Amino acid sequence: MNRREASKAETRRLVLEAARELFSQKGMQECTIRDIAGKAGVSPASVLVHYKSKTALLEEALVGDIRDALSGLIASIPAGAGLLDRLMHLSKGMLRFYDRDRDIYRALVRLTIFEPVTETPGMTKQSEEYVRFLSEMVEKDKASGVIRQNVDPMFAAASIFFFYLGALTMLFRMPEMSVETVADMLSSMTAQYLEGITQGRP
Amino acid sequence: MNRREASKAETRRLVLEAARELFSQKGMQECTIRDIAGKAGVSPASVLVHYKSKTALLEEALVGDIRDALSGLIASIPAGAGLLDRLMHLSKGMLRFYDRDRDIYRALVRLTIFEPVTETPGMTKQSEEYVRFLSEMVEKDKASGVIRQNVDPMFAAASIFFFYLGALTMLFRMPEMSVETVADMLSSMTAQYLEGITQGRP
DNA sequence: TCATCATGCTAAACTTGTTTACTGAATAAA
DNA sequence: TTTATTCAGTAAACAAGTTTAGCATGATGA
Fold first, then answer.
1. What ipTM was predicted for this assembly?
2. Helix, strand, coil % (nearest 5) of chain A?
3. What is the DSSP letter of A198?
4. pLDDT tens, A121-137?
5. Which of A69, A139, B112, B188 is the Cys-Cys partner for B123 at CB 3.0 to 4.6 Å?
6. What positions of strand D are covered by protein, i.e. any atom < 7 Å from a CB?
7. Which domain range does residue A120 map to?
8. Counted domains in chain B
9. Are B26 and B61 in contact (CB under 8 A)?
C-alpha cells in the first residue's frame, strides 16, 4: 500500500470511527457532518470524499453490527425446535436488536428501504442474506415433509420476510409500543401463516 | 367567516393548488418550497405558515387522490368473486395507482411510513381504513364459512396488508420492475397465505 | 372613533447536506 | 534528478428546508 493510500485509508477509518460514536450518541438528525468532521479532525468536505452522502456513511457505520446480529442469531438457532420457533428466533431477535436503538435504526431503514438497490449495497446485502437463509430453511423443511410440496420456497421466504418488515414498521412507527408486544404479534401472524387460514383444502 | 379567515383560507388553497401542480410536474426533490411559493404568489415562509413542513404539504397534496383511489376500488369490488380475487382487486388496484407516478408516491411513503402516527394523520388514516376494510372482509368470509373459525380477523387483515406493503416496497425499490410483475407476485403470495403452507393440519 | 390586540404574512437569517474550484504533496515518467 | 501528473484534502460557495423577529392589517372593545 502506498503512503498516499495508507493515509487515505487512515482518514477513512477516522471518519467512520467518529461517525459511529456520534451517531449512536446523538442520533442521525442531531449529528451533523460538520460534527463528525470535527471529531475526526478533517474538513466537512473530506467526509464526503470518503462516503458519498451522510446516508451512505450511516449505512457503513451501522451495517457491521446488523450483520453480526444476524449471523449471531443464525448461528444460535435451536436445532431441534419447530419451524415457528426457529423463525421467531431470527425475527424476534432482529426486532430486539433494532429496539436497542430505535431512533438510529429507524433513520437508517427510512433512508435506505425505498432507494434503488444500487444505492444501498450494505442494507440490500443484509436483506438478501436474510431472505436467502429463510428460503433455505423452508427448503429443508419441505424436504423433511414439514412443509407441503407445492410451496415455492422463495415466495414463502418473501412472505415471512414481509411479516418481519411489517413488524419492524410498527416498531418504528409506534414509540410507545414495546418490542415484546410487536414480537408477539409477529409470532401470531407467522403462526397463522404457517397454518393457513382457509378451510376445505385437500 | 371573517375577512381574515377567508383570506387565510384562500392563501392556503393557493399554496395547495400550486403544490399539487408542481409536485406532479417536477417531483418532490426538484420542486422547492420557493418554487411553490412563487407559483402561489406568496412568500416561502408563508407556505410553512399553512403547512408544518414540506412533507406535510406533500401529504396534503396527495392524500385526496389516494383516498379516492381506495374508495373507488372498494366500491368496485366484484361481488360474487372469490376471496383472493376480491383482495387482489384492492391490492393490485392500489399498486397500479401508485405506479402511475412512482417517484412522487415513493417520496411520500418514504417520508411518512416510519414517522410517528401523529405526524402523518392523512396517510395513517388511509392505512387504517384499508386494514379495517380488509378486516371486515375477513370477518364476513369467516361468517360465511370460507375462512376458518379460529382465525383472528385483525391478524389476517394485518397479514394481507403487510404483503401489500412488501409489494409496494419492491415496486418502489426496483424501478425496472413492472407493476404487473409485482402484482402477480403479490397474488401468488397471498394465495399461498390463504392456502397455508404446512402439512398435517386437522 | 380610537386604542389595543391578535395574527397572517414576510424578509432575512440560519442550518446543514452537498458541490466546486483549487492546492500541495505524493507518485509516476523522463 | 527533474518534470509532469494524479489525487487526497480543503475552503468557500451553494441550495433548500426551516426559524425568527417584525410589520401591517384586520378584529375587538371601550
1. 0.93
2. 80, 0, 20
3. B
4. 999 999 999 999 999 99
5. B112
6. 7-12, 15-21, 26-28
7. 61-195
8. 2
9. no
